[in-house]
What does this fold into?
Amino acid sequence: MTARPTETDVQAVLDQICTAWAAGDADAFAAPYAEDATVAMRGVFHQGRAAVRDHMAAGFAGPLRGSQGVDTPQDVRVDGDTAIVVSRAGILFAGETELPAERAVLATWVLLRRDGRWQIAAYANTPAQ
It folds into this structure.
C-alpha cells in the first residue's frame, strides 16, 4: 500500500532545491526535476532536466556564486499524485540576509509523483510587485 502524499512530502522537494542552491550544486539542484520538466521565468524558458542543470551550473560559476534561493510556500495543494505550490521566492546574493522587495517573485511549482518519487514537472515565476 502506498502512503498518502502530504504537504510535508512536497515541502521536502523544495527544501532539497534550496539546500542544493546554497551548496552551489547544479547536479543536486536539477535532480528533483523531471526529465521533461519546463522552467519559465522572465527571459528564460528551459525544457528538460539537463537544461535546468546547465543553466544553474553557469549561474553558480558566475552571477549566482555564493547566493542562495529562498522559497516560502503560500499555498500548497496535494491531490493524489499531483501537487501545486505557490510560493514567495527570490535570490539572496552573497552577504544579503533579507530579500529586497523588488527581487521577490511569486513562483508556481507543479510536482508529479512518479514511481513513488515527487518530481518537479513545471516551474514558473513572475515579479511579486
The chain has a mean pLDDT of 94.
